[in-house]
Amino acid sequence: MLKLLLRFQHMDRRWIFLGMGLSILLPLVFPINFGFKVDERVQALYDSVEALEPGDTVLISADFDPASRPELEPFYRANLEHLFRQDVNVVMVSLWEFAPPLVVPILDEVAARHGKVYGKDYVFLGYKPGKELAIKAIGENIPKTFPTDSKGTPTEELPIMKGFKQAKDFPLLINVSAGFPGTREYVLQIQGQYNLKIASACTAVSAPDYIPFYKAGQLTGLAGGMPGSAQYEKLVYPDGPPDGVRLLASQAINVLNLGHLYIIGLIVLGNIAFFLTRRLED
Amino acid sequence: MKRTVPLILTFLVGLFMVGEYFIPHYRYRIWTAEFLEWGVILAAAAFVLGLINLIQVNLPKVLKRERDWGYKLVMLIALAVTLVAGFTAGEHRDGPSVYKWVYDYTFVPLNATMFALLAFYIASAAFRAFKARNLEAALLLGAAIIVMVARVPAGESLPVIGDYLPRFMNWIMDVPNIAARRAIFIGAALGAVATGLRVILGLERSHLGAD
Predict the structure, then answer these.
(1) C-alpha torsion sign, points A162, A166, A169, A171
(2) How far apart are CA A181 and CA B53, in angstroms?
(3) Taking Cα atoms as reference points, which of B130, B114, B191, B173 lies closest to residue A98?
(4) CA distance A276 to A282
(5) Angle, to 10 degrees, between the axis of helix A69-85 and the axis of helix B108-129?
(6) Which domains does chain A have, with CATH numbers?
(7) Do A262 and B40 touch (CB under 8 A)?
(8) Integer Cα distance of A274 and A268 in angstroms
(9) How far is A151 from chain B, CA to nearest CA, in Å?
């Protein structure tokens, strides 16, 4: 028995990889749908969007890449749906060089579904390098930081930008953040200085870092990782998605079930084997 | 001279930018906005330096057939193709182009694959390294298992404890997690203030290079 446990402790990692692969594949082939509750932080984010009036304009900083797409794209899509459904205008920027080819087609797609007009109801001002410097510049002067939009139209000539010069002119800033530069930098650089209302959707690994900002009132809401995106989808589509819309996170969250349970099982079994074979190994 | 001028510039610009927080006059803001614009332009110029550096480091190794020269050659070819595709696609790359194709069909799958592989390595690392060897490790292990179970719908659906798990997870995240992170944040912030002051006052000179 002890020898078996010893062999288990030192098993080839390819067996672990195989188990992980099956834990992800099986729920995709045979989905099991568990219900889930909405977290207080996601509810607060949803409420801060609900509190906007038709005709308001929000600033979105879309800062994610293909690696974080599964976690953040569902939120990003549901959030745009939520905003356009309320007739809220969207001004979007990006601090991640890999984001624009990813986020612009989705922005155009969701805007077209709601009959929104580019330049009047929504705009993408483009990517800006400089990380914290760019964030400070967004806080100071947006037309100076983004002299034209991504199509080359001077920012000051865009109807949607009339009366919007600084980040503080927007009633809400939504940051879809996969890391650096992202929510942490927005909070540190400009939230306190201008007393901005910022809501954040971030990767699961960043969420524990941003919870102190939420608790201190520096973030009005926080959706962390795939569970956060799924919960936001649940709030935006309480009666299920309309035709042609897929709730990506709500489907994917059930794939996480078996993956998480597999890792927990490995940790527990690994510890049992460790304690039982410790003397033998010594 | 080579050191004195950068030190004087750092001192003046650093002091000026800090002043923004204490002098709320709009004219002062116009100047700080101007400085920020210079900063953004300099940051963009860093991409060009990065490009030159990448070629300077890798090209000689390819020419001399040093170790792993094949990978470096692939990297340099990919760099050249993407660069040419980017320039030929023009300033506004909304429509279909070689650049968009390179992004959609090489960068996106490669980037996503690299990140997805983490799941496998995390499973292996958790199995091998996550052992309750002492009290601290046991506490960490217990907290990690509770948070992992409560984060997925299966955890919430467990009989009897399903209702309590998310509450306990939120307590872990809101109380011990925040307490530790605030301590780290405040410590790091004080460190950043001290380092900033040292740079402005010219006591910290490592950013000026070795010469």
Answers:
(1) positive
(2) 23
(3) B114
(4) 12
(5) 120
(6) 40-248 (3.40.50.10160)
(7) no
(8) 10
(9) 6
Cβ pair A143, A156 in contact under 8 A:
yes
Residues in chain A closer than 8 A to B31 (CB atoms): none
Is A193 in Cβ contact with B123 (below 8 Å)? no
Task: Spell out the residues 6+ positions from residue A266 whose beta carbon is closer than 8 angstroms to its own.
Answer: A16, A19, B123, B126, B127
Interface of A with B in 153-192 (CB under 8 A): none
Could B39 and A209 be called an inter-chain contact, meaning their C-beta atoms sit closer than 8 Å?
Answer: no
DSSP state, residue A118:
B
CB A38 within 8 A of CB A263: no
> In whole angstroms, how far apart are CA A254 and each of A13, B13, B95, B122, B157?
25, 53, 36, 19, 12
Nearest CA to B39 among A63, A131, A155, A189? A131
A130 to chain B, any CB pair closer than 8 A? The answer is yes
CB neighbour list of residue B112: distance below 8 Å, 6 or more residues apart: A66, A67, A69, A70
Query: 């506490």: which residue's tokens?
Result: B139
Cross-chain residue pair A209–B152, CB shorter than 8 Å: no
Per-residue pLDDT of chain A in tens (282 residues, 90 and over written 9): 778 888 888 899 999 999 999 999 999 999 888 889 999 999 999 999 999 999 999 999 999 999 999 999 999 999 999 999 999 999 999 999 999 999 999 999 999 999 999 999 999 999 999 999 999 999 999 999 999 999 899 999 999 999 999 999 999 999 999 999 999 999 999 999 999 999 999 999 999 999 999 999 999 999 999 999 999 999 999 998 988 888 999 989 888 889 999 999 999 999 999 988 887 766
Residue A22 main-chain phi, psi, to 5 deg? -65, -35
Q: Does a cis peptide bond (omega within 30 degrees of 0) precede residue A105? A: no
Among A230, A188, A189, A181, CA closest to A206: A181
Distance CA B18, CA A138 (A): 18
